[in-house]
Amino acid sequence: MAKTANVSRHRLGVLISGRGSNLQAIIDAIADRRLDAAISIVVSNRSDAPGLARARDAGIEALCLDPRAYQDRDAFDRALVDLLRARDVALVCLAGFMRLAGRPLLDAFPNRILNVHPSLLPAFPGLDAQRQALDHGVRISGATVHLVTSDLDAGPIVLQTAVPVLDTDTVETLSARILVEEHRLYPEAIRVVLSEEWRLEGRRFIAGS
């Protein structure tokens, strides 16, 4: 397992593309002292992301990094790495960030990038996970926090929680119930990873070791 030195290991960088509800859950967990961490910076690839205002309202530095200003994805990711490293970020949290993490970002933060996804991975990766669950007729879906790798939604699973799928569910109602669990699960997963009391055995994330 690759580890970051204990210096500044509680500094988070949060990447968003939209409303930032999971960002707010992290902010609230820190404020309530359920999570011993500090958000050093919030970065969005969209200037109109409402989550930027959430961050600024909480006194957190919030910036937009426009991918169109860069030659290619790797150039964008290198600029993102520069921003995060300049603020001594040790753990990167994707919170509705609608871009794949490229090689420069993955290499800069090995096993130090987290993502939350609205399904019980490996079921229903990618976009529209809630609609996929309904279309497949599953009775149980949920939320997953995982380490980010080069494969989409396929990194080692840190924490999961189940959410029943009701016969009356729509995409909107199922999404809303899963989101409640995401908000609970993500700060807890961040706490587990920051504790450094974990190891990887192949694809398995084993806590408390």
Can you describe what's shown?
There is one protein chain. This protein has 209 residues and is of the alpha/beta class. The chain has helices at residues 21-31, 50-57, 73-86, 103-108, 129-136, 171-194, and strands at 11-16, 38-44, 62-64, 91-94, 113-117, 140-147, 157-164, 198-201, 204-207. Helix 1 (21-31) packs across helix 6 (171-194). Residues 1-8 have low confidence and may be disordered. The strands form two sheets. The chain has a seven-stranded mixed sheet. Strands 8-9 form a two-stranded antiparallel ribbon.
Q: Give the strand order of the largest sheet, numbering strands 1, 2, ... along the chain.
A: 3-2-1-4-5-6-7
Helix content: 25-40%
User: Which regions are unreliable across 5 or more consecutive residues at pLDDT < 50?
Assistant: 1-8
Strand content: 15-25%
SS field, number of helical segments: 6
Shape: globular
Cα-based radius of gyration, to the nearest Å: 16 Å
Total strand segments: 9
Kindly summarize this structure in a few lines.
This protein has 209 residues and is of the alpha/beta class.
Overview features:
209 residues; alpha/beta; two-stranded antiparallel ribbon; 9 strands; globular; disordered N terminus
Write the layout of secondary structure elements.
Layout: E1 11-16, H1 21-31, E2 38-44, H2 50-57, E3 62-64, H3 73-86, E4 91-94, H4 103-108, E5 113-117, H5 129-136, E6 140-147, E7 157-164, H6 171-194, E8 198-201, E9 204-207
Parallel strand pairs: 1-2, 1-4, 2-3, 4-5
Antiparallel strand pairs: 5-6, 6-7, 8-9
